[in-house]
Design goal:
Elements lengths: L2 H13 L22 H14 L8 E8 L4 E6 L4 E2 L5 H12 L7 E6 L2 E2 L4 E3 L2 E5 L7 H13 L4 E2 L3 E4 L34 E7 L9 E5 L6 E9 L4 E6 L6 E9 L5 E6 L3 H15 L3 E2 L5 E3 L9 E4 L3 H10 L3 H16 L4 H14 L20 E2 H11 L5 H7 L22 E8 L2 E9 L5 E9 L4 H17 L20 H8 L7 E9 L4 E5 L11 H13 L6 E6 L8 E2 L3 E5 L19 H10 L4 E2 L3 E4 L34 E7 L9 E5 L6 E4 L2 E3 L8 E4 L5 E5 L1 E3 L5 E6 L3 H15 L3 E2 L5 E3 L7 E7 L3 H11 L2 H16 L4 H14 L22 H11 L5 H6 L24 E7 L2 E9 L5 E10 L4 H17 L2
Parallel strand pairs: 6-8, 7-9, 8-16, 9-17, 12-14, 26-28, 27-29, 28-38, 29-39, 32-35, 33-36
Antiparallel strand pairs: 1-2, 1-22, 3-19, 4-7, 4-18, 5-6, 10-11, 10-15, 13-14, 20-21, 21-22, 23-24, 23-43, 25-27, 25-40, 30-31, 30-37, 34-35, 41-42, 42-43
Helix pairs in contact: 2-11, 3-6, 3-7, 3-8, 4-5, 6-10, 7-8, 12-21, 13-16, 13-17, 13-18, 13-19, 14-15, 17-18
């Protein structure tokens, strides 16, 4: 296994380690118990209303309400289940910071010089800024640092501006953050030296007249970002402006239209390596202070080795920064605080070290385990916590001397912060102090409320699986009002709770789902016969992350809508004929239509179909000997979105996170084969497939003696095709390979095709290049190369759970059925296809593979697809594409020696905190069942999730 994957796994273990033995403060002894009464009835009525609406049916929630005066729970619901908390995570971060740093903590930023100052005020050396994680450093603070330079008589600097951000590590984004959030201010990069929260505000104003470009401005003004203006002013008062920043680049692209009467449009935009942004702003402030730098002065990074700072800037006390952090839910502040915790308490300015500190404080609060901490802000969907744990932490704070500092930072209902517009004109106004949290599918509210009898209540409401957030907000506000009224609540008129349902298999399945090890899990389960009889269900409508079970919807729709014999075409064109001499004086064009199986003839080939070598040989056989034009790649059949929405930035070096395009090769990847060299100390032996100049491989890895630690890793620099081999590989390692995604997949195809043609003896003019463009109408189609039929494509896709194949199918559905090769349009086709099978349309689908954390479906949606496909002419192809338990595909090593072996046909799915299994199984009595088991949440290991599924599958196969 690649060492980077090993380290990533170990990192997750570190997140939940409690590294010091600290006596927990006993907050309360009572465990959450079932409660009844008017308050409980009001909450249950709100739940019933939620479940009565198709748009909110899929929501699930953990709720806990604790009376801090009586030390008793007033209400609980799923309080022990883990949920993604969104910005409620900031409560854990800020309470831990108050506990360890204290309300009076101040961040410092130090100014150094490393040369001599002449009597005339010339610094013969460098100016240096060293940051210690101040989240609030502003442009005016850099001006004060410039004034400090001026105050000691420096008028000129004959050196560089050096910046030290080494107090934190170089990981700029939180674990599991989404690449599509990255351009925006709420996902700013983290650095120990930062200014203006590491973003600029881009303002677009209408131009002088219709047709003119919009006027763009940056605040603060900086040359660190380049801005491309593709806007247009139009008539009217509407603004349709899009601000983008390509991955890994400090380029801002502004497109769209703005009306002459429109209000200015603003967007906060982030940047790469923000410490250098600090340097650019500081350079401006030095100039404003009258300090001259030489034209050749550079802004560079350094690490200060020692010395006494010339000047130290101190931030406001943490208690003041905390107010903005929690009231306005500032992600950047929270992440800077988390790394500060790691640096000050554990000696490492990393999120992992900060998470260890938070875990230790949770232990002090009596919360031993059963949670996951990925970041400080809650932007990561890898965070998992329960409502009960949140309430325990809030109760713990009441006995700490920083209680008032925390409470002063919380939004007040109907008054300020993120609650300023909620619960106005209700008894909750001014009585609820709580932290909000929201992102796609998640809505949370946790804090304190003063009840009508004067008691202070601690509460937490964490909602996941939301199709539309406003239903959760409405319920949270209604519950908060009831808490403010307590104990003067009244029973809701006409409400009668529905009794819990039992099913034929309840006595068999309930004990499996109710094991102690599964307490933190939300499991959406539905089991029914093909004649429609429901044998068992639990939370069958809960919207959860399906992982690769989403491929069942993608492939079912593809087979249904395109047909089992559909083939993907790759077309070859020329805009001039091949002369008798073999020379072609025009361009060659290759147009892709989304063939996922296009490959090179080497270890990257996984299916028969079209190969680059085949295309090159065909051209040679047609007499081609020289190309004087360009090799033009046409990928216009799909859009230019290379990654699925909701994919994590830190997965970009891995094969399962491929780049997408209508013309792509080898599933969007190259292969690096590696093994130890002959002698320790030598570079690791590696081989690149295909042998292409398209990627640059930098090998900095070494062979070490047998038995030493394996730290070997393969990574790709973001937004580039530079692949790095680093670390040490023990001499006794057997060798392995990794597939690594590449950028600009069509250029990859073109480069490899050009190299294949050269190998066939075809030459190119010196100025001939590989370009991206469209096939002109005047070009002549020379040939069309067809893939294998769709049923064979789908068979490989589902058996091997191939993400690239699934994404190409989804975009193909959009292109064929909606005229737009995008994931969005493909998802529309899938929605419509499922609706035609009788399934609900209330689910979220953002990709085809299930890699996106934004996608949300329920067991009922999956079962509707599986049942519906049994009536489709494509069912045989669909069924045969599924892995068979104990036989092949991703189920090859599962359920061996059970009645489900060689019986169950199903699709697996797994990601961090997610595991799924859905498909068909025949009972011992000969009855065919369809089932879906979608598991989300926290367990000590993923094995608990798969064992749960396997126990259910074995139970079903054993039925008489």
């Amino acid at each position: 296994m690649n060492a980077r994957l090993v380290r990533r796994t170990c990192t997750w273990l570190l997140f939940i380690m409690l590294v010091w033995q600290v006596t927990a403060v006993p907050v309360f002894a009572q465990e959450a118990v079932a409660v009844s009464g008017p308050l409980a009835a009001q909450v249950e009525k709100s739940f019933a209303d939620l479940r009565g609406n198709g748009e909110s049916l899929g929501a699930s929630a953990g709720i806990a309400v604790f009376d801090l005066t009586e030390k008793a729970y007033l209400y609980t619901h799923n309080e022990k289940k883990n949920y993604t908390p969104a910005s409620n995570m900031k409560l854990l971060t800020t309470i831990s910071a108050l506990d360890r740093l204290g309300p009076s903590y101040q961040w410092k930023t130090e100014l150094y010089i490393d040369g001599n100052v002449t009597p005339g005020g010339i610094l013969q050396g460098n100016l240096i800024l060293k940051g210690y994680g101040d989240p609030s450093l502003a442009q005016q603070d850099l001006r004060s640092l410039a004034d400090a330079v001026k105050a000691i008589g420096i008028k000129q600097v004959h050196g560089n501006l050096l910046l030290d951000d080494s107090y934190f590590d170089e990981t700029r984004l939180g674990i599991g953050w989404m690449w599509d959030d990255e351009p925006y201010g709420y996902s700013a990069q983290i650095s120990a030296l930062a200014v203006h929260k590491n973003f600029v505000t881009v303002t677009s104003k209408a131009g002088a007249k219709p047709g003119a470009a919009a006027t763009l401005s940056l605040e603060p003004m900086t040359s660190y970002l380049t801005v491309t203006n593709k806007t247009k002013t139009v008539e009217g008062a509407a603004a349709d402006i899009v601000v983008e920043r390509p991955r890994g680049k400090n380029e801002v692209i502004v497109t769209g239209t703005i009306g002459t009467a429109a209000e200015p449009y603003q967007e906060d935009v982030t940047m790469e390596d923000p410490a250098l942004y600090v340097g650019d702003i500081w350079k401006q402030e030095l100039a404003e202070a009258g300090i001259q730098l030489q034209p050749q002065a550079a802004v560079k990074k350094t690490v200060v080795q020692g010395g006494v700072p010339l000047h130290t800037h101190l931030s406001k006390p943490f208690r003041d920064i905390l107010v903005e952090l929690n009231k306005e839910s500032d992600n950047f502040y929270a992440e800077m605080v988390l790394k500060t915790l790691g640096a000050t308490q554990n000696g490492k300015g990393t999120s992992e070290a900060g998470a260890q500190v938070v875990a230790d404080v949770l232990k002090r609060a009596g919360i031993e385990s059963g949670f996951k901490i990925a970041d400080g802000s809650g932007l990561s969907r890898f965070n998992l916590i329960t409502a009960e744990q949140m309430v325990k932490l809030l109760a713990f704070v009441q006995d700490q001397d920083y209680r008032e500092a925390l409470e002063a930072s919380l939004p007040i209902a109907g008054v300020d912060g993120t609650l300023r517009n909620r619960m106005k004109d209700t008894p909750a106004k001014s009585n609820v102090l709580a932290k909000t949290g929201s992102m796609g599918g998640v809505y949370s509210l946790s804090g304190y409320v003063t009840a009508q009898n004067g008691h202070k209540l601690a509460f937490s409401m964490i909602f996941n699986g939301l199709y539309k957030y406003e239903y959760a907000q409405k319920m949270q506000d209604a519950v908060a009002v009831q808490l403010a009224l307590y104990p003067e609540n009244v029973y809701p008129e006409g409400f009668t709770p529905k009794p819990a349902k039992t099913y034929k298999l309840s006595d068999k399945i309930d004990p499996i789902l109710d094991q102690p090890a599964t307490v933190g899990l939300t499991t959406s389960v539905l089991i029914q016969s093909l004649d429609g009889e429901v044998l068992y269900e639990r939370d069958a409508d809960s919207l959860v992350t399906p992982a690769s079970n989403l491929k069942l919807l993608t492939t079912g729709a593809a087979l249904n809508q395109l047909g089992v014999d559909y083939t993907f075409q790759t077309e070859l064109y020329g805009d001039s004929a091949i002369q008798k001499s073999g020379v072609q004086n025009g361009n060659l064009y290759l147009k892709g239509y989304g063939d996922p199986s296009l490959h090179t003839e080497n270890a990257l080939k996984v299916q028969d179909g079209v190969s680059i070598e085949q295309i090159a040989k065909w051209l040679k056989d047609k007499g081609l000997k020289r190309v004087n034009g360009n090799l033009v790649m046409d990928e216009s059949y799909f859009d230019e979105q290379r990654l699925g929405l909701g994919w994590a930035w830190d997965d970009e070096s891995y094969y399962y996170n491929p780049t997408l395009g209508a013309l792509a090769l080898n599933r969007g990847t190259v292969m690096i084969e590696y093994k130890p060299a002959g002698q320790p100390g030598e570079l690791v032996s590696m081989n690149l497939l295909p042998k292409t100049s398209y990627v640059q491989v930098i090998n900095e890895s070494h062979t070490v003696p047998a038995g030493e630690e394996n730290t070997f890793a393969i990574t790709r620099d973001r937004g580039t095709n530079t692949i790095r081999l680093t670390g040490n590989l023990p001499a006794d390692h057997p060798g392995d390979y990794e597939r690594v995604p590449v950028e600009d997949p069509a250029k990859y195809v073109g480069t490899v095709l050009k190299e294949a043609l050269i190998n066939e003896g075809v030459s190119f003019a010196p100025n001939s290049s590989v370009t991206i463009g469209k096939v002109p109408a005047t070009a002549v189609k020379w040939n069309a190369f067809a893939s294998k039929p769709l049923q064979e494509i789908v068979r490989y896709l589902n058996k091997q759970s191939d993400n690239f194949y699934a994404e190409m199918l989804l975009k193909t559905l959009g292109a064929v059925k909606k005229g737009e090769g995008s994931a969005e349009k493909g998802a529309q086709v899938v929605h419509e296809d499922l609706a035609a099978k009788g399934g609900s349309i209330y689910f979220d689908m953002f990709d085809g593979s299930g890699l996106s954390r934004y996608s949300l479906v329920s067991a009922r949606h999956i079962v509707a697809e599986l049942e519906g496909m049994t009536h489709s002419p494509a069912f045989s192809a669909y069924d045969s594409s599924l892995p068979i338990a104990g036989v092949d595909g991703t189920l090859k090593n599962r359920l061996k020696g059970t009645p489900a072996e060689n019986n169950l046909h199903g699709k697996t799915g797994s990601m961090t905190g997610v595991n799924s299994l859905s498909g068909y199984v025949t009972t011992k009595g000969g009855k065919k069942l369809v089932f879906s088991i979608l598991v989300n949440g926290y367990a000590e290991s993923s094995k608990i999730m798969t064992e749960l599924q396997d126990q259910i599958a074995t139970t079903l196969a054993s039925l008489e």
